[in-house]
Amino acid sequence: MKKELFAIGDVHGQISMFKKMLTHWNEETQQLLLIGDLGDRGENPKDCFLLAKMLVEQKGAIYLKGNHEAMLLAFMNQPEKNYGVYCLNGGMKTLETFLHPGLDDEYSPTEIVMILTSRYPTLQPFLETLPLYYEWGDFLFVHAGVDLTKRDWRQTADYDYVWIRESFHKEKNNTGKTIVFGHTITPALYGDNQATDLWIEDHKIGIDGGAVYGGALHGVLFNKQELVKDVKIDNAGFVWDGRV
User: Does the pLDDT of residue 244 top 70, yes or no?
Assistant: First the structure.
């Protein structure tokens, strides 16, 4: 068991920022944790997914399931039903980097999944094994949050671990844990649509600085009792333009 944990916020395809952040991770002394949403939108989602997969399988990283991993899995399991929703949430960028641009003019959703699974047969089984949360000393790491109305936060529905927003942000945290989460960008949490610093309130720490939107990627170092350091990389490169 390593003495410290290094948690990286929502990457969303920003491979250059992801690789730069990893240079701040000490593999020998720090457990690496990815808070989820490695793909969709961004510079190169495929490379982010494959790098994250390598880090899990070869370096012992913890990769939490985010809502965008959940949407990709839903699309792969029921392509005709979920294609539109996935594309509306940046999924086309992921599919194009795994396959090629313009694929939606050539193939049906079912055909896209068939090609994707034939070329990357281990991707879907890997994503299906991702955990929903991770406990580390006084801290609980989760992609979106937990249901704080439950007597025991572990009764949170699987959907809420990856999708919950306002009800988690506003409900009193009586879990005894400091909850570290991504999913909702800190500019939204601050309410000014600008601030990209960590959001810290009521033993909750939001670490999604909105990197893909021109904000910042956070790498946050913890020991089992406290937040030790925040590495903040501002986006000076690719910014998502909202193209479906």
Answer: no
